[in-house]
Queue: 3 jobs
Job 1
Amino acid sequence: MLGYSLHVSLPDTGHDCHSLGRERYDSILRETQLRVLDTYVDEGRNHYYDVERV
């Protein structure tokens, strides 16, 4: 099994930004033949996705 880690983080630009949401990220990953194994959030509220190719 080959695993990947996807880190989603945006720089602090002073502009409002909004997450696509977990459902949309899951959909994008499925479309690219990746399945979410686990997720993590760090102290800076950055989201991490552990995925594998299916």
Job 2
Amino acid sequence: MVSTETNQTVCLNSDVSLRQMLAAQGRPRIFAQSVQDRKGKGIQMLNGNGQLREIRITDLPGIRIGQAENREAGTGCTVLIAENGVPAGLDVRGGGPASRESELLKPLAAAECIHAILLSGGSAYGLDAAGGVMQYLEERHIGFKIGGGVVPLVCQSDLFDLTVGDWNIRPDRAMGYAACVASESGNYRDGNYGAGTGATIGKALGMEYCMKSGIGSYAVEVGGLMVGALVAVNALGDVYDWKNGQIVAGQLDETRKGLRPVADFMYSHYATQMPQGNTTIGVVLTNAGLGKTALCKVAGLAHNGYARAIRPVHTSADGDSIYAMSLGNVPADSDLVGTLAADVMAEAILQAVYAAESAYGYPAWRDLKGK
């Protein structure tokens, strides 16, 4: 269920950055399932004339988010539905993406809007789940109108979670449809849900030494402008706190009680081929009025958030991808939106780690934080 916690406000001087705001709050903060699961003690009021307000990813207008998963199999999917169609862009930096309808989002493509984005597990097998999203939208006459009918435009990116639970069970048409139905009531949660169900991080030494991750979100409002990020973190590399550069979670050491940074391992094993089967996939949401070309740039700038919070990132063993969707018409400079998108994306990555719970034999951050 959607958390019923109330939104909390942070007032800032106009020259105070999101990094400073979050550092002042004494992170980590989990925007998750219940008050009891929160790790923060609330957001303190800071003096200032400007305002930067933390909001929920579900507060952004014109979008429905739904999730479905098979916990036993260790996989799931997360759908974002824009019934009226919205402009969107995409930037892919990883070497091994599994995706669908990516060509629609290139600036030269004719499509000016799409109707849904699906983030899913199952690697390339999970691309079948988009069929369920299309069925759901077609039944409700949502899509590009042509020839007396509609053609829903659904883009999708998948992460590799096949070795986490049951290799033979992946997100399919039924699961994609179920996620759409769930979006009607709004069941989005950070953690081991949706596309984050089977997500793991820190895998240079193989799955024996990785940690459990999940899906995370973070969003802010400044004036009338809203920018948020949602991301399923399934990286080869480790996750770092982008505010202080400290490693948070990732590859375990030989004792499985501490961390051995992936980059350090790579330096001492420079001839070793890194394991395939990773990928961090995310979506930037904003109510800024931007077109497809500008949104592709916003998605590209949001990859700076990946680079701040994941190391190494954008490798040939990852399929790192970010979408960006414009949900409104608030006037805003696209570079400003992209700069803020990088910050909220970096924080959403942290939330994916903080909200994750141990599963499938993989420990989570909350299991190691006291050691």
Job 3
Amino acid sequence: MAMTVFQSAKGQAEGSVAAAINMVEGNDLAKDTNCEVSKENPHVLYVPFVPVTSENVDDI
């Protein structure tokens, strides 16, 4: 295996709540998040992941 990814449940939850608040308040979806809005669909928010390799697997 060359690598896999770690998707933080906490990070996904925080990004989702922030995005929901932004939607209610009429702000940009990704405001005050570390997430990225999809270029294809402005209603999709990408939560960053951490690449896991043999070099950093013990840190995750």
